[in-house]
Amino acid sequence: MKPLCYSRSLLLILLLSSHLFGAIKDKSAMVYYGKHISYPMVGIHDYIIVQPSHINTYTHGFKIYKNKIYAYVSIGEIDRDIQEYKSIKKEWILAQNEAWSSDVLDLNNLEYQEFLFTKMIEKQMKRGFKNFFFDTLDSYQLYAKTDEQKTKSKKALVHIINTFHKRYPDSKLIINRGFEIIDEVHGSIEAVLFESYYRGIGGDSLSYKKVSDIDREWLDIYLRKIKAYKIDIIAVDYLKSEDIDTSKWLVEKLQKRQMIPFVSVKSLNIYGKSSKNAIKREIFTLIDESRYDRVFQSAHTQGATPLEYMGYIQKIHDINKGLPKVEEMSQYAGVIIWLNTQAKDQKALIEWLLKLKSIGLKFAFANSFGLNKNEYLKKLDIQMQTPSTSMFDKSTILYQDKMLGFEINPSLSQADSYYNILKGDALFKLKDSLGNTSTLGAIMPWGGYSISDSFSVEIAGDNLWSIDPFAFFSKALRLEELIVPDTTTKNSKRLLFTHLDGDGIINRVEWNPNLFSGDTILNEVLKKYQIPHSVSIVGAEVNTEGLYPKVSNSLEEIVKNIYALKNVEGATHTYTHPFYWKKIINDDLDEKYRLKVKGYKFSIQREILGSIKNINQKYIAKGRKKVNTVFWSGDCLPTEKVLEYVYKNDILNINGGDTYITNLHPWLSYIAPAGLQRGDFYQIYAGVQNENIYTNNWRGPFWGFKRVIKTFKLTNSPRRYKPIDIYYHFYSGSKRASLNALKSVFEWSMAQDVMPIFTSEYIPIAMDYYSVSMAKEGDLYLFDGMKNIKTLRIEKKDMSVDLASSQNILGFSHFESHTFIHINNAQKVLLKPSLTDKKNIPYLIGSNGNVELSQTDKNRYNFSFISHVPVNLELFIPKKCTFSSSLKIDKKVKDSKLKLKFSTAKKVKIDVLCR
Q: pLDDT tens digit string along 305-331?
């Protein structure tokens, strides 16, 4: 925004009436012009105003919140440093605004008006923006000096705004100020924004201005108009960055006048404060990628899963790219320094950490300090000493906190140096035979640390947690206990999906060489187990122009028969199955890193979108669901560039992750998180690893995939980390042992309390996790961005929900120590947890299908169930209520619970009437 002058309209808020502070149901706004937007921070707001050039419109978060994101457009002037400036004609320029290095444009010029629509607005629409924020509406005051010029310019503004509304009737518009034309444009705008009365001058100080009687009289006129038109008013105010977190008093002043408040710094590049504010979910994690990619580092392989289970999001940052400015850290709930080597610039690191300390942002050291100089650690109240004589083998424990010994007890070996704290509470303290002490873990005023074997221990290549990561990170970073968006469960049922990588469809069957493995998978798995299956193919294995032209007709017939099944959806496993994605250079991949197809010119386009188009055109029957998913091949490590390609083309992606916890390796580090971020994009991981891993890279035993059942059990209890994902290849159909193992896995999985879904349904659930935004006020919680993810988890058993005070809640259920909250068909959810169940409103306890609840009146509840398999359901029905069904049933309510299990019906309606 460009505040050109402090007109009387800026003082409007003084005359507005009082309102309660911080009501979570109140509308709120966020104006963020920074370059790296955090959707968990902005998504909770009703109005999100951004600089469009700073927004990647291909991300999942943008698509989730698109309908309430407004792109900034300057109407009255144009910056000289933007690309569009080159197309500005000299005759359009009527004045200069040197304060903003911009030129003021002639609003009356019809050619400029068309340029504004086609080159400024429609350009952003093509990028994905739908709604807009018009700024600099009053810039004409710099050239319009006479009343006639001013009147003419105002008319031009009215024409532009109303033309926008006519051209783009589905788009919404916010204007900056423009009170004097409100009568002519009120039907075309959603809200009015302006910088408010309590205005910070340059972010350095506050200027308190008195309102004269003339101003008050003038403002009263516009106040009545705006209130009559029921237009929202957003009041933006400024403070110093260090004062933002204590700006409640200013938000309160604005709210009391029934404004939508927003308080930020003048540059608008931080996440300021409004009437409701997001809970911070992101954990900044500092690593060193100079030697190893993030996917192989313990920060990701060990750290991401416990953070995600607690509802937080790990945001990895490579220290070699520099340390961010402290004022850019406002979105983070905490910071983890996870450096496996000493920092190259220790002075810069400690200075940065001290700045974090000064603003109260907690940080924790994981495994090591990355600092090996006493002068630096002393600034953190840690005294480092390197003993002259090694007595490490004769240590005794002085103190061990209960959070130690999570998977293994820490050894008595010291770190390279001794550490003693001047402040804080020790977690693990040793003493050697000479009386020297060392504290290898502690909770400190600024956060905490756990280093060396007090953090984790490596045994035979396995990483075992010495310290409880859930307790340590929570306590060190002072993390809030969150209600967690859950990717594993829906309507109380553990999610079950199955996805098949296309490798080996051509393999001959051991007991009948006339059959391909594709035949046995089709007839003995896909047809037999009537749940959703997601099946991919490797194009070069199947297509006539591929590797096996002599049998391609037979293989293509198998594929067509597979994709003709109603319980099957298609996917691509690429065209030539790249083995190492990082070896792609300049959109080319050497033949030694992929399948060798004669005459083929490699490209990412042909591998992914080209393969998808080929499948849709050749193998998917008319009227069937089109393919839109890639199952990563080879090392399953797509680069940021490749991920950007699939997001730009709206393609879903999955694979990777290496979850294969078993009795032999029952450690948390063998459970991967839901995905990995590269740049602005997420690679979504498979739920578990495939049979190739369980059979020792297909060397045997070929029945080894049975062991995935233990993985399913260990990722379900005592914590449910993962859905059930039966992930395998076509070649499992080529051997009797592997086929029987696969059947055992299907039969066990289908016997569990599950909701079967397609893989294409799971991927958006996992993607949602990283963009869900949440806020809390008292005992009320507000969630937004829950488009696909439909479960909230409370890590307490026997919790309940105040259904009368909540919105878009279907019901709740309990599993071990968890309470699962079931979400209706809505993206925005209001939740009031309760310790007691009032038992006066019917609700969903569980179902194996999607459920939608509607109310025709306050006493009638209509539940609609749709499942991929025959419906089973459980409803709580109060004693005062009766029910009816769309299907004939003879089941009665027992203990206020209605349990129904249908043998064939996949669609059921239950109506509940309460008197």
A: 999 999 999 999 999 999 999 989 999
Angle, CA of 33, 826 and 30, to the nearest 5°: 15
Helices (DSSP H) in 366-498: which residue ranges? 374-377, 469-476
The pTM of the full predicted model, rounded to 2 decimals, is 0.94
Cβ atoms within 10 A of the Cβ of 428, count? 26
Separation of alpha carbons 90 and 623, rounded Å:
55
pLDDT reported for residue 435: 87
In 3D space, the residue among 217, 209, 279 whose CA is nearest the CA of residue 237 turns out to be 209
Q: From CA 300, how far away is CA 676, in angstroms rounded?
A: 8
Tokens 């005062």 -> residue: 880
Q: How far apart are CA 714 and CA 407, in angstroms?
A: 14
Quick one: which of 236, 234, 300 has its CA closest to 265?
Answer: 236
What separation, in Å, do the N-terminal and C-terminal C-alpha atoms of the chain show?
Answer: 55
d(CA 565, CA 76): 58
Question: What is the distance, to the nearest Å, from the Cα of residue 232 to the centroid of all Cα atoms in its chain?
Answer: 29
Beta bridge partners of 421: 382
| CA 516 to chain centroid | 41
In order of 427, 504, 560, 711, the CA distances from 509 in angstroms are 58, 11, 20, 28
Tokens found for residue 441:
């873990």
Which residues have C-beta within 8 Å of that of residue 591, sequence separation ≥ 6? none
**What is the distance between the alpha carbons of residues 815 and 834, in angstroms, rounded to a whole number?**
17
Give the residue from 647, 635, 786, 726 showing the smallest Cα distance to 293.
Answer: 635
Q: What are the pLDDT digits (tens) for 708-718?
A: 999 999 999 99
Three-class HEC string of 686-703: CCCCCHHHHCCCCCCCCC
- Cα separation, 710 vs 494, in Å, equals 16
Question: What is the Cα–Cα distance from 427 to 242, expressed in whole angstroms?
Answer: 32
Count the Cβ atoms, other than its own, within 10 Å of residue 424.
Answer: 18
Instruction: Measure the CA dihedral 365/367/373/376, to 10°.
Output: 0
Query: Do 63 and 42 form a contact (C-beta atoms < 8 A)?
Result: no
Hey, what amino acid is at 765?
I
Return the exposure string of 777-813: e unless at least 16 CB atoms fall within 10 Å of the residue's CB, then b. beebbbbbbbbbbbbbbbbeeebbbbbeebebbbbbb
Which burial class, exposed, middle or buried, applies to 565 when counting CB atoms under 10 A from its CB (0-12, 13-18, 19+)? middle
Region 47-65: mean pLDDT is: 98
DSSP 325: P
Q: What are the backbone dihedrals phi and psi of residue 218, each rounded to the nearest 5 degrees, phi first?
A: -65, -40
What distance in Å separates the CA atoms of residue 673 and residue 307, rounded to the nearest whole number?
9
> Strands, DSSP E only, in 532-680?
533-537, 568-572, 629-631, 652-654, 675-678
Res. 627 pLDDT band, cuts 50 70 90:
very high
Total length of the chain: 915
In Å, what is the CA distance from 687 to each residue of 257, 584, 621, 639? 50, 26, 29, 20
∠ CA 489-492-493, nearest 5°, is: 60
